[in-house]
Write a structure and sequence with these properties.
single chain; alpha+beta; 9 helices; 6-stranded mixed beta sheet; 5-stranded antiparallel beta sheet; 20 strands
Length: 363
């Protein structure tokens, strides 16, 4: 196992495009850290720089305290699992698992021991003589993971390893990866564009956009205290509701929108921070679970039901509020018909406020 640290790491391509800009963070020994963001945000580029598959334009990369900027991939003691399984079709599962060890000249008994151990961990013992064509998608992905496991590296790098699997298999493989990491305790860096994967797997998450780090924190801190509008809108399914307007205060706080006014109440938790924002434009963020149907006297706004999405243990109400789209997450219940007007209240203690100019959280 090992620590990994990046200090102002930067990647600039020959055409001038900045793939990663000033990335600085450290990964603790045994930690599972997730890099998440939309396509093209720089997460895979960052992972490939750690692996040595992309050169570093500037900054310093250390693995276990050793600067590895110019160290060849094979000498970094890392193992990488790619998006595609990259298995040799003519080899059995056992041969695929042990191939990298053969290349490194490991003794036969050592290879057999490591292959058996990896097969046991991944429940592949009954498939060691099978070839990839005879395996399911989940089994192939486990073989790809096992090929990295047998290396016993200091650091695991996983580049969207579940993206080729169907939804149900992704869920089970996600649990397997979490269980495997808990058992092995190997330092792991996991890349995904799927926020659910990031939230459920990561001990900490690095959120990237446009090559820049937007926020680094634990999953629940990212959800409860997003640093800016990008993080607020990216993490959460359904996404946070965002309303832009001018903040005012008389007897209570209110948000003046183009076509209406929202009463926000006393806001005891946020009042001190908001004083400097009176008569200024802000963005109000409300999570779907904090926007609930209420009796008319308690309502902050009225919206029209457009689409109802029952998903079993909860229901998503897609609403039209003027020219804005809102979502409310409610427990299963007797639902109103489409085109019905609903009165909705907001949980004052869980409202989020952002600077309308730069998108930063008003703390």
């Amino acid at each position: 196992m090992a620590t990994v640290s990046l200090e102002q790491v930067r990647k600039v391509y020959p055409n001038g495009h900045v793939g990663v800009d000033d990335a600085s963070f450290a990964i603790a020994d045994g930690e599972l850290l997730v890099l998440v963001g939309p396509s093209g945000c720089g997460k895979t580029t960052l992972l490939r720089m750690i692996a040595g598959l992309e050169s570093i334009s500037a900054g310093t990369l250390r693995i276990d305290g050793r600067v590895v900027n110019d160290v060849a991939p094979k000498d970094r003691d890392i193992a990488m699992v790619f998006q595609n399984y990259a298995l040799y079709p003519h080899m059995t599962v056992a041969e695929n698992l042990g191939f990298g060890l053969h290349l490194r000249g490991k003794p036969r008994q050592e290879i057999e021991r490591r292959v058996r151990e990896a097969a046991r961990l991944l429940e592949l013992e009954q498939r060691l003589d099978a070839r990839p064509a005879a395996l399911s998608g989940g089994q192939r992905q486990r073989v790809a993971l096992g090929r990295a496991l047998v290396r016993e590296p200091k650091v695991f790098l996983l580049d969207e390893p579940l993206s080729n699997l169907d939804a149900r298999l992704r869920l089970s493989m996600r649990v397997e990866i979490a269980r495997l990491h808990r058992r092995l305790g190997t330092t792991t860096i996991y890349v995904t564009h799927d926020q659910v994967e990031a939230m459920t797997l990561g001990e900490r998450i690095v959120v990237l956009d446009g090559g820049k780090i937007q926020q680094i924190d634990t999953p629940m801190n990212l959800y409860d205290k997003p640093a800016n509008l990008f993080v607020a809108g990216f993490l959460g399914s359904p996404a946070m509701n965002l309303l832009r307007g001018r903040l005012q205060r008389d007897n209570g706080w209110r948000l003046e929108l183009d076509d209406t006014v929202l009463a926000l109440g006393a806001l005891p938790v946020q009042a001190t921070a908001l004083e400097a924002w009176r008569a200024r434009d802000i963005v109000l963020g409300v999570r779907p679970e904090d926007l609930q149907p209420v009796a008319p006297p308690m309502a902050a706004l009225e919206a029209t039901v457009e689409v109802i999405e029952p998903v079993g243990n909860e229901v998503f109400l897609n609403l039209r509020f003027g020219d804005r789209h809102l979502v409310s997450r409610v427990p299963p219940q007797q639902m109103p018909a489409p085109c019905t007007t609903l009165h909705l209240g907001m949980n004052e203690e869980r409202l989020h406020f952002f600077d309308a100019q730069n998108g930063r959280r008003i703390a």
